[in-house]
Amino acid sequence: MIGKQDLEFLGKQYLEILAKKSNGINVSSNILGGMPVVKGTRINVSLILACLRDEMTIEEICEDYSLEYEDVFNALNFVIKVLDYPYYEE
């Protein structure tokens, strides 16, 4: 049986692998505790999603957080990879 620590370790490894396959996204235990961030910043991907949920436009996000359109695009692509890439295979 897999314990909580094992799942946390696997989850971190999973995100690191996907970040390496993604443009403009970084996952490092030294930055925001390993949360996925826009490369070269401390802006996490979940913040960008929250902004979109709150009906901010991409232009507003870019202006408020000093990002480029490509940064937001890369963050969204990363989320798609997280949801589409199999976490484990049986």
Plain-language structure description:
With 90 residues, the protein is mainly α. It has a single domain (12-84), classed as Arc Repressor Mutant, subunit A. Helices cover 56% and strands 4% of the residues. A two-stranded antiparallel sheet has the order 1-2. The longest helix has 17 residues, at 4-20. It comes from Calidifontibacillus erzurumensis. Pfam families: DUF433 (PF04255). This is DUF433 domain-containing protein.
What's the structural blueprint in terms of helices and strands?
Elements: H1 4-20, E1 25-26, E2 37-38, H2 45-53, H3 58-65, H4 69-84
Antiparallel strand pairs: 1-2
Short description:
The protein is mostly helical.
- CATH topology, by name, is Arc Repressor Mutant, subunit A
The CATH architecture: Orthogonal Bundle
Would you identify the regions where 5 or more consecutive residues have pLDDT less than 50?
none
| Main sheet properties | 2 strands, antiparallel
- Count every helix, treating DSSP H or I runs of 4 or more residues as helices: 4
Give the strand order of the largest sheet, numbering strands 1, 2, ... along the chain. Answer: 1-2
Portion of residues in helices?
A: 55-70%
For the record, the CATH class is: Mainly Alpha
Mean pLDDT: 89
Overall body shape: elongated
Tally of individual domains: 1
What is the alpha-carbon Rg in Å?
14 Å
Total beta-strand segments: 2
InterPro entries: DUF433 (IPR007367), Homeodomain-like_sf (IPR009057), WH-like_DNA-bd_sf (IPR036388)
Pfam family, one: DUF433
Protein name: DUF433 domain-containing protein
